[in-house]
Structures are given as structure tokens and as C-alpha cells.
Amino acid sequence: MKLYFSPGACSLSPHIVLLEAGLPFQTSQVDLHKKLVAGGADFLAINPKGYVPALELDNGAVLTEGPVIVQYIADLAPEAKLVPPAGSFERYQVMEWLNFISTELHKNFSPLFAPHASEDMKAAARANLVRRYGYVAQRLEGRDYLSGANFTVADAYLFTVTSWAGFLKFDLSAWPALQAYQARVAARPAVQQAMRDEGLIS
């Protein structure tokens, strides 16, 4: 398998999951502005949507959309227990988190990255993030991870998205449980390795 990524982007989430799963894979860095893969190939020929992540399988098929990719990877390595069994209520709870992170957190960070976004748009996005993170922090009280004691693919995604807060100067100090969670996830060996591989830490 080959993961197409951009350092620190949402593709960090499947990068972490691949390492947690212990599966063999390669990575290929994408220039998102030029839409080129390292070496000069046209990324749009791989993913016409033009964004990461994309996971190219050994048979040449390509999966896109991070929440789907992480579940696919986890199902390849059930012994790693990165998702509950298919069909279980607990699995749907993890899917619920993936959808929440995607629509309520990830998408609300987008205007903060966009140079063309108005100050009103950015202010509205920040207000939405404050409300949403209040909910997340409440759910994390007394838990190591979103589902309790077990790290899942939803944690890889939440950690990735929340890690953008420092770069964007979005203050997390109002939520000590969330800050402790970020530190706990950051200390995992697979997370450390993924961040080193992407040049995010030395």
C-alpha cells in the first residue's frame, strides 16, 4: 500500500493508523499547491479531488476520504483492535466520532487556513470550534481515549485535527482534559514515528 500525504495535514491520521496496525506501506509526499507527487507525477491522476489522504492499494485501486481509509486499514489488522468489530454498537460509536470530527471540527478549521476567508468567517469558525471542543472535552473527562481505555482510529483523527490548534493560535487552555488527551496520544510510539516521518518533530 502507498499513502499519499502532506506533512501535518489530515493524512497524518491514516499514517498513524498504518503504524499502529503494523502493516507494510510506503508513503509519497504531495505538493498540494502544485498537485504534484514527489518526483513530479500528477496527483490529480491519482485522486481527482486534489487533496490528501489517498491510499493506493496493491492492486492499484485507490481509496480517499480519511475516515473511510482509517477504518479500512483497521479492518486489515483486527488484532490491533483499532476499531470494534463490524456490526457492533461500539463500532457505530466510533463511526459517530469520525463523522463528528470530520464535519464539526475538521471543516471548522478550514476557514482558519484559507487566506481568502473573511474575518467574519474566521470568527464564526472559531465560535463553532469553541462549542464543539467543549463537548469533546466533556466526553473525555475520566477517559484515556474517546471510546474509553482503548485507542481507536477516531483518536488518530481527533489528535491530528486538534494538533492544528497551535499553528492557528487556537487556545486549548480552557479544556485541561483535552490538553492531557493530546499529550497522551502524542506520546504513543506510532504517533511519534508518524510525526518524525513527516518532519513534524525531530
Question: Which secondary structure elements does this structure contain, and how are they paired or packed?
Answer:
Elements: E1 2-5, H1 12-21, E2 26-31, E3 36-37, E4 54-56, E5 62-64, H2 66-76, H3 89-113, H4 119-140, H5 153-162, H6 164-167, H7 176-186, H8 189-197
Parallel strand pairs: 1-2
Antiparallel strand pairs: 1-4, 2-3, 4-5
Helix pairs in contact: 1-2, 1-5, 1-8, 3-4, 3-5, 4-7, 5-7
Counting helices, strands and paired strands, the structural category is alpha+beta
CATH architecture of the largest domain: Up-down Bundle
Question: Distance between the terminal alpha carbons, to the nearest Å?
Answer: 25 Å
CATH class category name of the largest domain? Mainly Alpha
β-sheet strand percentage: 5-15%
Q: What does the oligomeric state look like here?
A: single chain
Shape: globular
Can you summarize the main beta sheet? Answer: 5 strands, mixed
Fraction in helix:
40-55%
**Could you tell me the radius of gyration in angstroms?**
17 Å
The helix/strand order is EHEEEEHHHHHHH
How many DSSP helices? 8
Q: Provide the domain count.
A: 2
Average pLDDT metric: 97
Strand order of the largest sheet: 3-2-1-4-5
Strands, count = 5
For this structure, the CATH topology of the largest domain is Glutathione S-transferase Yfyf (Class Pi), Chain A, domain 2
Q: Catalogue the unreliable spans.
A: none
